[in-house]
Specification:
The complex is a heterodimer. Chain A is α+β, with helices and mostly antiparallel strands. In chain A, about 45% of the residues lie in helices and about 20% in strands. Chain A is built from 18 helices and 18 strands. About 5% of the residues of chain A have low confidence. The N and C termini of chain B lie far apart (about 45 Å). The C terminus of chain B is likely disordered. In chain B, a hairpin with an 8-residue loop joins strand 4 and strand 5. In chain B, the strands form two sheets. A six-stranded mixed β-sheet of chain B has the order 9-1-2-12-11-10. A six-stranded mixed β-sheet of chain B has the order 3-7-8-6-5-4. Chain B contains four helices and twelve strands, in the order αββββββαββββββαα. The chains are: A alpha+beta, B alpha+beta. At the A-B interface, helix 7, strand 17 and strand 18 of A face strand 4, strand 5, strand 6 and helix 4 of B. Chain B: This is Chemotaxis protein CheW. Chain B: Pfam families: CheW. Chain B: InterPro entries: CheW, CheW-like_dom_sf, CheW-lke_dom.
């Protein structure tokens, strides 16, 4: 994994070499037509940018040359000098020297001395004649000059998306070939298939790797955001950023950009109190906001933490009852995590009054949807008076997801592992009927259980009340978890755990949100991927 | 092929009249035609995965060379099949390329190409509505050697609204 400095240095190199190429081009144009104002302006601008970049990166020698060159191009632009006579070779030497210096930085060599050049540039600025040395070797240098291309390429993300899709298809076909080869009796075919497996695996990971960017490329935009929002809200905020080196798929970072912005604005606007209020509460006047990234197994966790007022669980509970999301009795039974989960309910936060619940809310459901669309999770933890932490659990890469495959009515289905809590097999007597719902005790927790077949194929009406006598023999149950709600799904048979490439549901069936997409199994069979958030919503809407 | 010969003869008699090519298939007891440019390919019906929460005539989704397409049964959609009869075990699927997506239509027999002069397609009469077909999908009716072919405009039939909202009406 590259360090940030290394990454910055590479970017500097790419830009500097581009500047150098453009300078060479423009100065040649200027030589042909000394009155070319556009070329002159470009040269002035390029020198100025290179000066700033080189200074920021700690290359004063390059910055110094660029600075004097900029001065002279400025004088030429202001008609105080003309691009003719001895000025021309000095400036060409200047551009060449810049090129050599940049290449030396790239190769990690010592920078060539530019003293003669700097002296000549000074003479030009002061209106003196430059001292041109006869350098026959220099001509040799020119003739033998190597043309160099940058070591880095810019690629449009859509080209990478295309590659990613292609490799996804390849993986599917590969799995098919592997299955077919195992059925055949040809050892040669099996060996080739095994090789194909390894190669395409590596290809897939390489392409995923190419798409990874540092979380820092997003985090680094936040100091400014925090400063502006804090100023507008009249708050004093210190921002701490951590884990910029963590890598994640560029498109995932793109999708969470708005969510992160939202959470940061919320934290400053509503989470962290005004300085006077903080001092009264015995906290330092300056609020602390932390953006942190870390990896956890295959996931990336991004946390937005503040040391503000925290979320008042009782207010949220009251609000949820007022809005009819839960009955007053049931609300008393819910633990704090379950209550805070209401904050992510669509529309819950739309009400203006919510601001008295430390104002969490405006559009948290939108944040939740964005994270859901990635197959991620949004969690919140909070201590009243101490602060709030939002955690975004994100996949590292969009394309490949771990999934649990199971069978229902002789068809294969998949559930992303991200949303599966556990799998259990229970006898009918382990299940209890409460209020028309089946309940199972799993890890000391009562979890509602529903027959997935019923849930999927029951038409539009509510589910019929559960009846334990319909259950015959051992029941295989997948416990899924969404928004702190657990739900058990009775299925026919567990199959296996597998990495799958999810294809989005094609039109016109993409309006059916129960399925996050489809995947093709090694046999070529189409396998529907269940969307746990939508399934949970369907269950809540249909429960008897 | 006989159909092609017919078409060539007609072409001569009608002097350079523009020909259109149809893919003709059977639904219930009638012949239907789709302009060939709307048909991407014809294949043996692949294995179909049933999609819950869709109208009955949407058979499900299938893998067609790596593309996941929706498969629909027009006999069921138009109620052209007497109750109880099912599609045969071996059927064919025409992949129809719409504006935004491809859809598969299952048919019992292998669809056949047929060239006809554009002018013999007559506008559909009003009474067609009586047999449960919304007339806007019907581009017209062609009479070829005594056969009647209902020419469908698939692009109008395959809009997402048509496919997904129809069950609400029934």
């Amino acid at each position: 994994m590259k360090s940030r400095e290394e990454e910055y240095r590479e970017i500097f190199m790419v830009e500097a070499l581009e500047y150098y190429d453009a300078m060479s081009r423009h100065i040649s144009e200027l030589e042909k037509n000394p009155a070319d104002a556009a070329a002159l302006n470009e040269l002035f601008r390029l020198m100025h940018n290179l000066k700033a970049n080189a200074r920021a990166m700690g290359y004063p020698a390059i910055s110094e040359v660029a600075h004097r060159m900029e001065t002279i191009f400025g004088l030429i632009r202001d008609k105080e000098r003309t691009f003719e006579g001895n000025v021309v070779p000095v400036l060409f030497t200047g551009v060449d020297t810049i090129g050599e210096m940049i290449r030396a930085v790239g190769a990690g060599n010592e920078l060539p001395s530019a003293d003669t050049l700097l002296a000549n540039l000074d003479r030009l600025v002061n209106g003196e004649e430059p001292i041109l040395e006869d350098q026959p070797e220099a001509d040799d240098d020119d003739a033998n000059r190597k043309l160099e291309l940058s070591d880095l390429v810019y690629i449009q993300i859509k080209k990478l998306d295309h590659l990613m899709n292609l490799v996804g298809e390849l993986i599917i076909d590969r799995d098919r070939i592997l299955t077919l080869s195992k059925e055949s009796d040809s050892p040669a075919l099996q060996a080739t298939a095994a090789h194909l497996f390894r190669i395409s695996d590596e290809l897939q990971y390489s392409i995923m790797d190419v798409r990874l960017v540092n979380v820092g490329s997003l985090f680094n935009k936040f100091p400014r955001v925090v400063r502006d929002v804090a100023a507008a809200e009249k708050k004093d905020i210190a921002l701490e950023v951590d884990g910029q080196d963590i890598q994640i798929d560029r498109n995932i970072l793109q999708i969470i950009t708005d969510s992160l912005l939202h959470l940061v604005r919320n934290a400053i606007g509503h989470g962290i109190e005004a300085p006077a209020v903080r001092e009264q509460a015995g906290k330092p006047a300056q609020g602390q906001l932390t953006l942190a990234a870390q990896t956890e197994r295959d996931n990336v966790l991004i946390q937005v933490s503040d040391d503000g007022a925290g979320i008042n669980v009782d207010s949220v509970r009251r609000k949820a009852v007022e809005r009819g999301l839960v009955s007053a009795e049931a609300a008393q039974q819910l633990d704090d995590d379950a209550v805070r989960a209401f904050l992510f309910e669509p529309g819950f936060s739309m009400a203006k009054e919510i601001t008295d619940i430390s104002g969490r809310g405006v559009g948290l459901d939108v944040v939740k949807l964005a994270i859901d669309s990635l197959g991620g999770q949004l969690r919140v933890s909070s201590t009243l008076g101490k602060g709030t932490t939002f955690t975004l659990v994100l996949p590292t890469s969009i394309a490949v997801k771990g999934a649990l495959l199971f069978e229902l009515d002789a068809r294969s289905y998949a559930i992303p592992l991200m949303h599966t809590d556990s799998v259990v097999s229970l006898q009918p007597e382990d299940l209890h009927v409460v209020g028309g719902l089946l309940l199972a005790e799993v890890q000391d927790e009562n979890v509602p259980v529903v027959d997935l077949r019923r849930l999927l194929h029951n038409g539009d009406g509510p589910l019929p009340p559960a009846n334990r006598h319909e259950l015959q023999g051992r029941q295989d149950i997948i416990i899924v978890n969404y928004n702190n709600r657990k739900l058990g799904l009775i299925i026919d048979r567990f199959l296996r755990q597998q990495s799958i490439v999810i294809k989005p549901m094609s039109k016109p069936l993409d309006t059916i949100d129960l399925f996050g997409g489809v995947t093709l199994l090694g046999s070529g069979q189409v396998c529907l991927v269940l969307d746990v958030p939508a399934l949970t919503r369907l269950f809540l809407a249909k429960r008897p | 092929m006989a159909d092609t010969d017919n078409a060539t003869n007609e072409k001569k008699t009608t002097k350079q009249e523009p020909l259109i090519q149809l893919i003709v298939f059977r639904l219930g007891d009638e012949d239907y035609g789709i302009r060939i440019e709307q048909v991407k390919e014809v294949t043996l019906t692949p294995e179909i995965a049933r999609m819950p929460k869709t109208p009955d005539f949407v058979k499900g989704i299938a893998n067609l060379r790596g593309d996941i397409i929706t498969i629909i049964d027009l006999e069921e959609r138009f109620q052209l099949r007497s109750a109880g009869t099912e599609m045969p075990a071996v059927s064919y699927t025409m992949a129809i390329e719409g504006k935004e997506y491809t859809i598969g239509i299952v048919v019992r027999e292998v669809p056949q190409p047929l060239s006809i002069p554009a002018s013999i397609i007559e506008k559909a009469p009003e009474f067609i509505q009586d047999i449960n077909i919304h007339d806007k999908y019907i581009e017209g009716i062609a009479k070829v050697n005594g056969r009647i072919i209902v020419v469908l405009d698939m692009l109008k039939l395959l809009t997402p609204a048509e496919i997904m909202q129809l069950p609400a009406k029934s």
